[in-house]
Amino acid sequence: MDLRERRRFVVAAATALLAVPRVGFPQQGPKVWRVGYLASSAAGSGINLAPWLAELGYRDGENIRLEYRFPAGKDDLLPALAADLVQRKVDVIVASGLPAIRAAAQATQTIPVVMIAEGDPVKAGLVASIGRPGLNVTGISVLVPDFTAKRLEILKAMVPGLKRAAVVWNPDDAEKEEEWHAAKAAARDLQIELHAVPVRGRDELQGALDDAIKAKSNALLVMSGALVYAHAHRIAVLAQERRLPAMFPASYYVDPAQGGLASYGPDLIELSRRAATFVDRILKGAKPAELAVEQPTRIEFAINVRAAKAQGIALPPAVLVRADRIVE
Q1: pLDDT digits (tens, 9 = 90+) for 3-25
Q2: Does domain 33-142+268-297 have CATH number 3.40.50.150?
Q3: What is the pTM assigned to this prediction?
Q4: In the chain, which residue ranges form alpha helices assigned H by DSSP?
């Protein structure tokens, strides 16, 4: 074999070698992050992470996979659902509501948990402090008792001469106890008598609101909670039929699909965006133990004027002027 032939042989052999697949050394594609979302109710949180994560460069099915877990209001299933997310080795768990957050925190001490919580996370034992959580849990805390007094104050402005307000809440929800105490304290200052209307399930709603009418309540204060979220439209309809002006905990309730009259509370869209920001920072290397817990910055007073007309309620102009959002 002369020199020219040897060169052709070497080139052909090298070309063939390059064409052989390199077993054991697969070509690496872009990292696909796995983010779990855990909440007591799909409707309950109103959180939609996908569009906000997309704005940050994460697209579901491309470089991120979102895995949702909802127990349909059966909180006893949350630990198993949290364990499933851990078993699937998600990179971050977003948990909404204290039962879901506790389930996630108990399921793992290593996977970061971004919480969307009502109440004080320090008192709940979820973080060491607001400024420096110290564990694998951080996120957003909504101090509901602070909003309860404001809801009653607006309700009194909406219903001149308000003397008695019925309060819909689930007494089996231990997290509502603080909110109930805050409502009673605010009612004393506003000279409003409260009539507790306990509701533990959907089948109790009609009887509870009938009880509110029998107690001569002039208005309705609806506390937050998974049960209330799940049956928002039903509560709005029952309140409208009984001509009870109702104040709800978030603008989700006054959307046309739900039909509630008024709400005061954090903007759920902002909570979604902020939760996505926490996820982004953690995926880029930030440690949850060092990310300070944040509070909502946008609090929204919303009124559904269509619901007001349906109930024959003439809202004072001074109240309409105060509204951040009016649903026609």
Answers
A1: 445 444 444 443 343 344 444 44
A2: no
A3: 0.80
A4: 3-19, 42-45, 50-55, 78-87, 98-107, 144-158, 177-190, 205-214, 226-230, 232-241, 268-283, 305-311, 317-322
